Amino acid sequence: MDQNYSTIGRSSRTKQAIEINKVLRNTYMLLAMTLLFSGLTASISMMMNMPPMTYLISVIGGMVIAMFVLPRFAHSTAGIGIVFLITGLLGFGLGPILSMYASVPNGSNIIMLSLGGTGVIFMGLSAYVLATRKDFSFLGGFLMVGFLLVLVAAVANIFLAIPAMSLMISAVVIMLMSGFILHDTSRIIHGGETNYILATIGLYMTIFNIFISLLQILGIMGGDD
Amino acid sequence: MDWMKIVAALALIMFIVYLFPRARHMMENSPKGSSADWMGFVVPILVIVLFVMLLVQLV
């Protein structure tokens, strides 16, 4: 009898492990594809020489779709199309920012360092969670409150325009987004997130924010902002 | 441009309003971490800070 329960328990755990691996694999696959797609739309935007306001419009459009449209389609295949729409839009918005950096001396170096730095941060933190299998669910409230405070500071700095505050906000955003990578990856491997579409958009947003913040920090510190 | 600043501020405020209930829910329902758990978070974040400082040196 005990042996039967033990076999059922083991079989259930194996099924759960297979399910978690499937979510993780699908998330990383979709994330890789959306990042490539964003790169493509950013290149198109750069070639079209889009004006700076494109960034603002794209980010607002992407956020509105992510907040109000994606949750309705997250459990269907249409959700994949919505994810590509959001990431393509955000990539398109990056075009004018990248053009601006590319036009200043040392700008291409700043872009490449930001890109490489973002990749190293994401892969390093993901590997850390996957190797240690630590549970970072306790970070949820702390990260959300931190993020809200950063958003309030960002609203204030839109009008104050203090460069030191911009630098501080970017630094805190990188730390918070790093925390979100730990939190979100840990949620996937512990079965807290079973929808790879929502997992992908969460991780994509962290990568996007780290890249933008690194660009800003390296731009300011490089003296080319 | 001033209108861009106002639109950006309004978008951020909308985002704050949208996230606030979620943040409150997560604050109330997140499990408490032990000091070992927090160390497991602080150490990689410090490594990230050092890494960003290295990138700044490379610019």
From TrEMBL, chain A:
Protein name, as recorded: Modulator of FtsH protease
Please, one GO biological process term?
proteolysis
Q: How does it sit in the membrane?
A: Multi-pass membrane protein
The transmembrane segments are 28-47, 53-70, 82-104, 110-131, 138-159, 165-183, 195-221
Q: Which InterPro entries match?
A: Bax_inhibitor_1-related (IPR006214)
Q: What family is this protein classified in?
A: Belongs to the BI1 family.
State the Gene Ontology terms under molecular function. Answer: peptidase activity
Domain of life of the source: Bacteria
Write the record's keywords in alphabetical order, separated by commas: Cell membrane, Hydrolase, Membrane, Protease, Transmembrane, Transmembrane helix
Protease as a keyword of this entry, yes or no, is yes
Tell me which GO cellular component terms the UniProt record holds.
plasma membrane
Q: Where in the cell is it found?
A: Cell membrane
From TrEMBL, chain B:
> Which keywords has UniProt assigned to this entry?
Membrane, Transmembrane, Transmembrane helix
Q: What transmembrane ranges does the database entry give? A: 6-23, 35-56
Q: Does the keyword Transmembrane helix apply?
A: yes
What is this protein's name? Answer: Uncharacterized protein
Q: Which organism is it from?
A: Nitrosomonas marina
